[in-house]
Amino acid sequence: MKKLLLLLIFLPLYIWGSEGMWLPCCLSKQTQQVMKEMGLKLSPDQLYNPVGGALTNAVVSFGGFCSGVVVSPDGLVFTNHHCGFDAIQQHSSVEHDYLRDGFVADSLNKELPNPDLFVSFLVRTEDVTERVLKALPAGVEEGERELIVDSISTLITQEAIANDTLLRAEITPFYAGNEYYLSVYKDYYDVRLVFAPPSSVGKFGGDTDNWVWPRHTGDFSVFRIYADKDNRPAAYSPENVPYHPDYFAPVSLGGYEQGSFCMTMGYPGSTSRYLSSFGIEERVNTDNAAMIDVRTIKQAIWKNAMEKSDDIRIKYASKYAQSSNYWKNSIGMNQAVKELKVIKKKQALEKQLQEWIRRKPDERGKYAQVLTELELNYRNRRSAARAMAYFGESFANGPELITAALAVLNFDFEAEETELERNMRQLLEVYANMDLDVDKQVFVAMLKEYAAEVEKEYLPEIYSLIDKKFKGNYQAFVDDLYERSALKTPRGFEQVVKGDSTYVLFEDPAASFAIDMLVKFYEFNNSVEDASMKIQQNERLLNEAVREMEADKDFYPDANSTMRLSFGMVGGYSPKDAIEYTYYTTTKGIFDKIRQYKGDSDFDVLPSVVDLLKRKDFGRYAAKDGDMNVCFISDNDITGGNSGSGMFNREGELIGLAFDGNWEAMSGDIVFEPNLQRCIGVDIRYVLYMIEKYGKASRLVDELKITPAVGAD
Q: Which residues are catalytic?
């Protein structure tokens, strides 16, 4: 009876309990109680403890763009295949095609180093809002406000790491800049590739299945953190040894059932749940529209070349995967925003806010003009914002020759030695993975698309040159540029490094084009600066007003690449009338899709993998019915950056790795839809099965602390 009363008391939050990406350090009593009622057995100190020994101590930011989980006393890290994809690609060649065949290190000395890969451990989080806001004078202008915040933030972060040079500190704005938190990290720079499944496992379904349920993708890879002999961060060295963590996550073979508690921990990148309706319209019609249009063209060129050459396939595999992921995300988001009437719902909230302001005389002076100002300033920058979005996709994110030229122009030759080496290595990798014929095709297509989509006033000066000298022939212009540029190979960069007086960087046509682009982008920024500052200020006031209007609600902050915890339950959903999706998939679905999509490269599977799965030698990794689960879903709240996040049961044991969301709720970065939004994870039993049976890497499984299957919760 007592438990029932508690559920009734917390019923409103319990219903939407799966919504929210919460700071582990700062869970309210209300949220803690809801988690407990939903099944969590861990105490707050077992979730987060700056002294150590908590679950957060096993969770890492992987490379600054994904998440991962430390799962062994010798520093093994589980993350997604697509998170490790770039590292796997860099080690691959036509002779050693680890993308196609997978990779396994059969001993420590065979684990492959990745010079630019790092992981970050969160040491502690601290609310510094009061100190930051106290430094702001009343009525401060937005531009000056940013400078003051930057200044006080620098001071606070310097104080935070003054006694430990191995630490790194950041201050991040929350609630659109209404609050500020300090995060202190320890970074480890020697991270080695240990195991990768074949892409036909790790990327099974490819673009076709991306962001779609049901999934059958073994999206995982395994790395190891190395440290010096004193367990401290160190650059790669053969003398380094496996890192011994303060805490590592146990792994459960117990599985899950409908309604099982599920919790994720990771580093979600960015959400905009409190964005105004005007901001949502801009995102749909500018950023997303540009990404969809431009990348559709660029990816078609890449894919055509990749299908004709194994060398180009390997060079472009990682670039294509990254580009395609957010391209399809934007398509799904725009569709979901429309179908779920997201903008209308946001407008209804804003109307409710206006009524609240009218009833609150004390708030009228502060909030009365917020929505009017937002509407006006989003409108004032509309055409320029659209041009900037197409400009960024077409040129800054377009031809790789221009990317290389920009890198050379901005190269800091006075940087510290380690940073200098890293910058040089990254630039040389651009050249190593670029095919000039493919890049020229992209360049021509980008010039055409940008000119077709923006107003003439937003065309850079280079278009006048193309009209006059090349009679508007983009192909002729590009052929001439590549013919005359020394930057199409590392040779031009080497001449700059050597101080070769016969080569003038600024006269190189690729560098000249890049400078023209920089000048135009500077003009863009100047033209929208006033409107953008006013938008930033009023979005912050809007956030403050909504939180004040609904003061009894337990608000979570938008994702901003800081560590977050989300919780919910394993369970299926109904995307449409008369359609019901169950909460897990099995290996049977792999064979069904192979037959259904015969001839489609997204569903090609290595014969060795097919033979392994046909044998059904699942052993202790099998589900209760003897079959092998591949993926499962929960209503946990995640977004980009959560890839590789651990999915934990009520005991804090690892049951899966989050890797995707679902198509029907692609508006999730803007609004959470509890009946539709799902987190897709790969079952940890499938991960271990592939490591042990396909990779024959029992040595890795033996490192883990495994809880046997004694029945799901």
A: 82, 219, 643
